[in-house]
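In response to the reviewer comment on reproducibility (Comment 2.3), we provide here a single inverse folding case reported in full, input and output, so that an independent group could reproduce the run without further information from us. The structure tokens appear first.
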């Protein structure tokens, strides 16, 4: 499994860590588990560590996953911080995810520093 989801109960942040290639079935499973944990704990601040992510799914897969996020979130405000190796060159999949989320009203911001990302989420 190229992903792992956990709740940080102190910060009320759902953290998903990705590693390696993420084929479409794994993307869907990771998104569903992240949303399940978020709903169960009313924790709509999400931290995605994508520093070791190596692609593996298509733009269509990403678009469908963003649609699932939008349906699950509804009118609930959600913030998502994405930790990437380089904000200057985050990769086309990360940029596509960010744009698709923002087009649907989900705040997404890219970071290359974990503490800055967590601080941004804490201000939500």
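Designed residues, in position order:
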């Amino acid at each position: 499994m190229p992903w792992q989801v956990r709740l940080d109960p102190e910060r009320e942040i759902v953290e998903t860590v990705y590693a390696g290639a993420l084929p479409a079935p794994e993307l869907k499973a990771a998104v569903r588990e992240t949303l399940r944990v978020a709903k169960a704990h009313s924790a709509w601040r999400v931290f995605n560590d994508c520093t070791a992510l190596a692609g593996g799914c298509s733009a269509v897969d990403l678009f469908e996953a963003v649609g699932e996020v939008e349906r699950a979130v509804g009118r609930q405000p959600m913030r998502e911080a994405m930790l990437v190796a380089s904000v200057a060159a985050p990769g086309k999949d990360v940029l596509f995810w960010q744009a698709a989320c923002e087009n649907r009203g989900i705040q997404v911001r890219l970071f290359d520093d974990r503490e800055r990302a967590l601080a941004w989420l804490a201000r939500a």
